[in-house]
């Protein structure tokens, strides 16, 4: 229970002179709250704590609140498990077509799925507009299965991200196993993916379906080396567990796992042997070990997870094996091979083969897209990165109707209360109905209300009419210019980093405690302040804009200097700490392009972060310098420790 919630309840008790137990109040003293917004916050808090009694009291006192739909939603949300279908239907009908009605339908569908009420579920699911809930996707497939449809292929395609599983997906796996649409092989595939992702709860559930002792699953995750000191037994379960245990052992030491597999390989069939090498190869690849390449070759014919498909390609990329890279991309499922990442690298593989016309076609397919691989593709086709022609400015006449739009007004109201979840829900709901021009107008509305993150995200959605001044804003330009000039730091890069870090939300605070525009961790702030000789520094100063910029840029300059001036390495260091990119660089056996280094960063978050920061920086530089830029030049070459950038000479890929 939140502190705010507890305080609100204690205040009610004291002022009303009633019992000190939550939910026991029979009246509310109006002096308990400063205003109706304050009371609405208490209603919301009560709803999220399933405190139906207090939610009802708060809702009753908000009969004239200016957002009645949310008052009604939180009133029902507080007793959702006990709410009747009639009550929910009445709410949805009353507010049909609104964001909050769709949110209620989402909640209701989850309950219908859990209860197995498939007739109503099937009526309501097609009406769910946002359709972003993976549990509901699993329930939808489960409903088809219950009604006798063959869904195993659809389920296999859906069940590929174990960390996103929940009740709906667990139940789907269980039911498909019971009716014979999931085979033992399918279950072992799910078990391997669970082990790859460290998803022990899923593994325990799959283990029950495979009739495995719970202790074995626990041992598999915690002490896999103790499971098979004498190798696998002759039964299938023992052999399959041995394959998975090798993957778990490889998380610590791939070479130990490889030695163990070689010792007992004669006890496995061909499929199990391939899967075992794939398990080891993935962990070796994530450790950026050169041996991973040989492991992937031996894993040919294995059943790969989506992560494994991509890391086989990344290993080939890091080691400069363009032929294996091409084969690895060709083997990917269509929905993977057709994302910009692998379109670009397939183009590079074709170029390495001398198939320049085919390569140019691949690059041309994404060169007009405003992102990292769109920029690189543009350069591969002989162009530099510039800024689109400026669009017609938004007029006051265009802004007026968007400003008066009820959904946008609700969103702005929620943002003013720091309720970003509700604000984003209302804002994005209305954007669905907007033309591209209206997106740009809405972005200006966000700018007018100092919601720069909304401005950026809204403007980012347009394709034909693009406004880079919205997409790449430069607030606090005077402070930024002064600080970066003093340090000799590239201001375009700093803005590119801030755009990725906080989207210019001045009060942004991450789950791990990073604060402000440049998302500085408390320990980092203290360290930098001490290095700079800032006397009497206190942690709260990190939220001051100028202080945040000074500390962030100084830290960025420190890691840039430490990492030899590479913006790719320094960006990685800013996100993951300086020790990790040093370790990743130490694994290099040869110089690599910055783009290859970025794509083969083993942390998903940091990999995306570095690509986005340097992509942003390139666009900012084009805006600042008013001339075309090169992302490739900005990425540079990343060299093994001990080699200088001037000594590094990349091979001509077209000759390989």
Structural features, described:
- By secondary structure, this protein is mostly helical.
- Among the domains are: 3-83, no CATH class; 320-383, no CATH class; 396-466; 477-655, Lysozyme (Orthogonal Bundle), CATH 1.10.530.
- It is built from 38 helices and 2 strands.
- It has helices at 3-16, 36-48, 52-60, 68-77, 85-94, 99-115, 118-124, 134-146, 152-158, 167-178, 184-196, 200-209, 214-222, 236-250, 254-264, 270-286, 292-298, 306-319, 322-330, 334-337, 340-352, 356-364, 372-380, 396-404, 406-416, 420-431, 436-448, 452-459, 468-471, 477-487, 491-501, 522-532, 545-562, 567-576, 579-586, 594-599, 604-625, 631-635, and strands at residues 592-593, 637-638.
- The protein has a two-stranded antiparallel sheet with strand order 1-2.
- Helix 33 packs across helix 34 (567-576).
- The radius of gyration is 28 Å and the shape is globular.
- It starts with a helix and ends in an 18-residue tail after the last strand.
- Mean pLDDT is 92; it is low at 1-31 and 648-656.
């Amino acid at each position: 229970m939140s502190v705010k919630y507890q305080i609100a309840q204690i205040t009610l008790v004291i002022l009303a002179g009633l019992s000190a137990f939550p939910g026991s109040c029979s009246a509310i003293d109006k002096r308990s709250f400063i205003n109706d917004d304050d009371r609405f916050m208490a209603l919301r808090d009560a709803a999220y704590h399933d405190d139906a009694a207090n939610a009802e009291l708060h809702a009753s006192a908000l009969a004239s609140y200016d957002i009645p739909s949310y008052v009604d939603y939180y009133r029902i949300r507080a007793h959702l498990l006990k709410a009747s279908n009639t009550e929910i239907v009445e709410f949805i009908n009353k507010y049909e077509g609104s964001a909050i009605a769709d949110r209620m339908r989402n909640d209701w569908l989850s309950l219908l799925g859990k209860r197995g009420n498939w007739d109503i579920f099937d009526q309501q699911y097609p009406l769910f507009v946002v359709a972003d809930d993976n549990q509901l996707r699993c329930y939808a497939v489960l409903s088809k299965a219950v009604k006798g449809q063959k869904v195993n292929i659809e389920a296999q395609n859906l069940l590929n991200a174990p960390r996103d599983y929940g009740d709906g997906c667990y139940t789907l796996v269980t039911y498909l196993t019971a009716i014979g649409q999931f085979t033992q092989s399918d279950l072992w595939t799910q078990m391997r993916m669970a082990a790859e992702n460290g998803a022990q709860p899923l593994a325990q559930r799959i283990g029950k379906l495979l009739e495995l002792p719970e202790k074995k699953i626990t041992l598999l995750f915690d002490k896999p080396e103790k499971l098979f000191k004498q190798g696998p037994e002759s039964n299938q379960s023992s052999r399959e567990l041995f394959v998975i245990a090798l993957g778990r052992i490889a998380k610590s030491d791939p070479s130990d796992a490889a030695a163990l597999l070689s010792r007992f390989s004669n006890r496995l069939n061909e499929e199990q042997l391939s899967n075992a090498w794939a398990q080891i190869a993935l962990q070796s690849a994530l450790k950026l070990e050169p041996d991973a390449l040989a492991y992937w070759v031996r894993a040919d014919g294995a059943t790969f997870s989506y992560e494994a498909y991509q890391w086989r390609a990344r290993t080939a990329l890091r080691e400069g094996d363009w032929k294996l890279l091409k084969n690895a991309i060709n083997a990917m499922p269509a929905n993977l091979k057709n994302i910009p990442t692998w379109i670009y690298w397939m183009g590079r593989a074709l170029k390495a083969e001398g198939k320049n016309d085919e390569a140019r076609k691949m690059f041309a397919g994404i060169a007009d897209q405003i992102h990292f691989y769109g920029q690189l593709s543009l350069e591969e086709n002989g162009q530099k990165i510039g800024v689109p022609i400026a669009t017609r400015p938004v007029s006051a006449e265009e802004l007026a109707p968007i400003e008066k739009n009820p959904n946008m007004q609700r969103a702005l109201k929620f943002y003013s209360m720091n309720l970003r979840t509700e604000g984003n829900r209302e804002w994005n709901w209305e954007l669905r109905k907007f033309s591209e021009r209206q997106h740009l107008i809405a972005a200006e509305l966000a700018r007018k209300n100092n919601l720069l993150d909304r401005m950026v995200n809204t403007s980012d959605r347009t394709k034909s009419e693009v406004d880079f001044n919205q997409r790449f804003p430069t607030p606090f330009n005077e402070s930024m210019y002064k600080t970066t000039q003093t340090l000799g730091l590239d201001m375009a890069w700093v803005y590119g980093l801030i755009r990725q870090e906080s989207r210019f939300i001045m009060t942004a605070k991450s789950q791990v405690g990073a604060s402000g525009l440049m998302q500085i961790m408390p320990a980092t702030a203290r360290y930098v302040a001490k290095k700079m000789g800032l006397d009497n520094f206190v942690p709260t100063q990190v939220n001051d804009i100028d202080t945040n910029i000074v500390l962030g840029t100084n830290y960025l300059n420190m890691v840039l200097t430490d990492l030899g001036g590479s913006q790719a390495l320094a960006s990685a260091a800013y996100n993951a700490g300086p020790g990790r990119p040093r370790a990743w660089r130490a694994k290099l056996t040869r110089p690599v392009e910055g783009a290859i280094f970025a794509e083969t960063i083993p942390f998903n978050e940091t990999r995306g972060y570095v690509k986005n920061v340097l992509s942003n920086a390139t666009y900012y530089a084009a805006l600042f310098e008013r001339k075309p830029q090169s992302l490739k030049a900005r990425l540079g070459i990343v060299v093994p420790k001990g080699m200088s950038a001037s000594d590094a000479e990349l091979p001509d890929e077209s000759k390989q």
